[in-house]
Amino acid sequence: MQRGGWHAPSNLLPLIILFAVAGIKDFISYIGVSKKWLYFLAIFVFIYFVGGNVKRYKDIIVANSVDLYKQVAADIVEYFSSQKISSPKIMVNDSPIIWYYTNYNLIQIPFDKDIDSLKKAIRYYEPNYLILTGYYPVSTRRIYMGEETDESLLLVYSKKYPFQIPVTDGNGGYELKIYKILYDKL
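Now predict its structure.
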């Protein structure tokens, strides 16, 4: 589910293109809008973006102030602690969020569409683990969904949640998966 101001403005793209080509002043004079309507439009856009953030913040409060990603990150830390691994080198999507909660060395999964680009990045950066929290990036989607396997990725931890993992691209799944990377099979 896509929510928020980062996805909705694409619907306004034709209007934005007109503004960019004609210039905002020429566009306003062309459509005959007075300054008061321009102020109204500016206030509306401001309220739209701020209101969306306030709603998301209220949703967090309603959920008993639970930061869902904090729960997922705690499970990641718990797994590595139980394995006595103090500073794993991990390839993951949403690396800034996971780093914030774990302070682990992280590498962003490449956003290419095939598994070969993922393997190339693994060879280059040499992470020990791959963590998947959702259906994106495309290169790991089929692995995450269990539609494809790779002998170089050994699933060592999996946990299902009653909530969708809140990833920045909106394609979070309901399961955390940690894979150990087997370099001898890569």
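Residues 32 and 88 are 61 Å apart (CA to CA).
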